[in-house]
Amino acid sequence: MSSTLDAPLGARTPDPASGATFAAGERVPTRRRYLMCEPRFFTVEYVINPWMRPDQPVSTERAVEQWEQLRRTYERLGHTVETIEPQPGLPDMVFAANSGTVIDGRVLGSRFRAEQRAAEAEHFRRWFLEHGYRSVVMPEKINEAEGDFAWTGSLLLAGTGFRTDPGAHAEAQEVLGMPVVSLQLVDPRYYHLDVALFVLDDQSEHPLVAYYPDAFSPGSQQVLRRLFPDAVIANAEDAECLGLNGVSDGRNVVLPMEATHLAEKVAERGFEPVLVDVSELRKSGGGPKCCTMELRD
Prior knowledge:
Blueprint: E1 12-14, E2 21-23, E3 33-37, H1 60-76, E4 80-84, E5 101-103, E6 106-108, H2 120-130, E7 136-137, E8 149-151, E9 156-160, H3 167-176, E10 180-184, E11 197-201, E12 208-211, H4 218-227, E13 232-233, H5 236-240, E14 247-248, E15 252-256, H6 260-268, E16 272-276, E17 293-294
Parallel strand pairs: 3-4, 6-7, 9-10, 12-13, 15-16
Antiparallel strand pairs: 1-2, 3-17, 5-6, 8-9, 11-12, 14-15
Protein name: Amidinotransferase
Region (Disordered): 1-22
GO molecular function: arginine deiminase activity
């Protein structure tokens, strides 16, 4: 397991449980393009999820440092990072994943449930239009974008229960032209799909995900078992540090630094964990994925 970006690509990583080794190089990364927003105005001044505590101190400077580390991590891994200008009065705009879903160059924007974040959607809509996207649709239903949508390479997993309306799933299928599978979230701590599940491999014939079963209803757990019988199963510790708010390029898996157990589990499957400090951003309920919208052009 690596917490830096300097580990050799062909390095073999030990399995702490068995002492066995595996070749991380067997997994092949694909170059990605991401959209991010600097947390220049980051603070916690309201409560819209169980992680937010306005009575606790927050360092905007530290949040910016952690965001910069995350951005540099992506760039060192060979990915392209685009940025959108942050806006005063929108402290959660750093969580770019909530403002758009892009597949094959088609964009489905967002419509936030919390009024405190509603204005973010228009800034992202303008960014898409200014950067050459022509198929940009703003949703009629409450839709918090990649917060509740996860693309597996063949279908779109769609969460509901706390933020995104169930009707937004049908809207996404119509706009994006991709099959959608609805999943019911039941634990308010894991209010978005992207803090309960993430996609490790979206390039192979059989996509691979990691998820925390207890975040989902019994029926949705059955659906996930059927779709992903080989999934990486996270435990409560993984979920509680927002470890499932990860980002994978098919080989390198960017995770919060506290997610050591989950890092070991994905390493056992031949992935290379890259641990980053997002502790300040987590005070608003976010992690690597929340800060990262993937531009699938």
